[in-house]
Design brief:
The protein is of the alpha+beta class and about 260 residues long. The protein is built from 9 helices and 8 strands. The N terminus and C terminus are likely disordered.
Length: about 260
């Protein structure tokens, strides 16, 4: 039997471990972690936030009333494999990155340079050298799952969809750009050696919004492929801007203990 997990899933789970305890308790109470299956996994020592991320998948919905010992062996190995893995995504080779034309990253969530007065949530824009501008990318929709504090992008099936974010670049230092892209790979749980992770990455044409110059800029962008069931339960940002006042930014920061 083979384990149905990937290194990128592991990286995503490791990201959840950074979240404060009270954030986890507030979000994950009365959810899949409190089902019979969730409780049995908690009893084995697995983390609450990891269990929520894994058991939230629609394919496990019919198993939530069972103890892990009552689940078919192949699925038990699959779930246990995902929860047990601790490896990080394989590092993307610098030479491979620099062979591509793209020298920017389009960020639409917590990696946005305007996420807070000090920059993005993770410090990617810190340390000097980062230049950024507001930009938009066409052909994607923006959503946020009710139990999670960050948004996700999906490819749109109709024209007219767009996402607003910030275009990040390090024009005077290619080595720093490579390091920042590798850092973003880790934050987003993207593994360049796998096509089956939670997050995928694509090069898009981002259109700058802060100047008269509207020439598209090639940039890396992370997105997800979600089932229709999970999209239907997610909040849709019709204008594509997660940081608009009518969005969920203040709520997300409050849950994270960051609201002043």
């Amino acid at each position: 039997l083979s384990l149905q997990w990937s290194p990128s899933m592991a990286a995503r789970l490791s990201l959840f471990r950074r979240i404060k305890g009270k954030f986890c308790a507030k979000f994950f109470s009365m959810s899949v972690v409190d089902t019979k299956l969730g409780k049995s996994l908690r009893g084995l020592g697995f983390k609450t936030e990891d269990i929520h991320e894994v058991l939230g998948a629609p394919k496990y919905k019919q198993l939530l009333t069972k103890d892990i010992s009552e689940v078919p062996e192949s699925i038990t190995l699959e779930i246990m494999g995902i929860l047990s893995v601790a490896s990080k995504p394989s590092e993307e080779n610098a030479e491979t990155i620099l062979k591509r034309k793209a020298r920017a990253i389009f960020a639409y969530g917590t990696l946005r340079a305007d996420y807070s007065p000090t920059g993005d949530k993770w410090g990617v824009t810190a340390g000097g050298g980062c230049k950024w501008t507001h930009a938009e990318v066409l052909g994607f929709n923006l959503y946020q799952e009710p139990k999670l504090y960050y948004p996700y992008a999906t490819k749109a099936s109709s024209s007219g969809s767009k996402i607003i974010g910030t275009l990040l670049s390090w024009p005077s230092d290619e080595k720093k750009f490579v390091a920042k892209l590798q850092e973003c790979n880790s934050i987003e749980g993207y593994d360049p050696s796998s096509n089956s992770g939670l997050y995928k990455r694509v090069i898009v044409n981002a259109i700058p919004l802060d100047s008269k110059e509207k020439t598209p800029v090639e940039a890396y962008m992370y997105y997800q492929e979600k089932s229709n069931e999970r999209i239907k339960t997610s909040k849709h940002f019709a204008d594509g801007d997660w940081l608009k006042p009518q969005g969920t930014t203040e709520t997300a920061k409050e849950y994270l203990g960051e609201k002043k």
